[in-house]
Amino acid sequence: MERTQEPAAQKPPLEEKLQLHLGDKLKMLFAETARSPMPDRFASLLDQLESVGLKGVQPRNGPKHDGADDSSEACK
Amino acid sequence: MTPTAEFKTALLAQVAQLRFFALSLTNMPDRADDLVQETLIKAWAASNRFQEGTSIRAWLFTIMRNTFYSDYRKARREVQDTDGEEAAKLMSYPEQGGCLDLQDLKIALAQLSEDHREAILLVGASGVSYEEAAAICDCAVGTIKSRVNRARQKLMELMGIDAPEEIGGEFLAAGDPLRVAMAQTG
Predict the structure, then answer these.
(1) How far apart are CA B79 and CA B28, in angstroms?
(2) B8 in A contact zone (CB under 8 Å)
(3) Model confidence at B169, in pLDDT bands (50, 70, 90)?
């Protein structure tokens, strides 16, 4: 697939202190999600996949089970 | 070939990362968890395509991103019609409670373009390398760097911070001696 290239940013990089501050905030945002309890549905889903396979497990948007379209780019 | 128990464990270990990336893509907690579920099912179905020794996180993020752009984007656009504050409320899972300290950041993130928000959250929050982010987003490393830089600038602009002294006490409260020294000399 053709890769896009954006022009270089016009403004100079932010001061290091501002970048550190923003970086801390962004990591806090991730930590907020990581700290929240994981819903049982994911562990149950993987248990089901392990025990009975893909039978009876339907993605929300349809029966596509092979993952071909969505995983192929990651497996080059 | 049937996926191994190790593969299952590896998937489970990535759920927190997947939920965060899903939330950043969808901005909708209920849809985000649906997207995580679909990603896990697709990954399970395609387990024989995962190459040992490569990043399972990058592989899963790519599956998730492709699923989102093929199936979920319409719903995402509906959310963008709301204002920044409404969209920011959706950037937390209900069980998170939501940290008030991060509210400004969430509002600002909600106003970024999809490309810029994705880049800054992958690199700045999830800790994905520029190279990994480029592979996940199917673009050049330079493009990711440019998007991250622009996103940083835009976030600071939206949050009304353009000088270190405007950050306030919380910056020093981090207690990092290097940062304290930097702030004092700034």
Answers:
(1) 8
(2) yes
(3) very low
CA atoms within 13 A on the CB side of B164: 18
Q: Which of A28, A32, A22 is nearest to B92 (CA)?
A: A32
Residue B97: predicted pLDDT: 54
Give residues 88 to 147 of B whose Cβ lies within 8 Å of A: 92-93, 95-96, 98-99, 101-102, 105-106, 120-121, 124-127, 135, 138-140, 142-143, 146-147
- Model pLDDT for residues B31-45, shown as the tens digit of each residue: 899 999 999 999 999
User: Residue A17: its chain B contacts at CB < 8 A?
Assistant: 164, 167, 171, 179, 182-183, 186
Residue B173: CA atoms inside 13 Å, Cβ hemisphere, count? 6
Listed in sequence order, the residues at least 6 apart from B161 whose beta carbon sits closer than 8 Å to its beta carbon are A18, A21, B167
Q: Kindly determine whether residue A70 and residue B140, on different chains, have CB atoms separated by under 8 Å.
A: no
CB contact under 8 A, B5 and A29: no
> Which of residues B67 and B75 earns the better pLDDT score?
B67
Amino acid letter, B177: P
- Whether B127 shows a pLDDT value over 60: the answer reads yes
Q: Does position A6 have pLDDT exceeding 80, yes or no?
A: no
Pick the residue of B2, B24, B49 with the most A CBs within 10 A to test the interface with A by mutation: B49
The question of ipTM being above 0.90 is answered as no
Sorted by where each starts, the structural domains of chain B and their CATH numbers stand as 1-94 (1.10.1740.10), 112-186 (1.10.10.10)
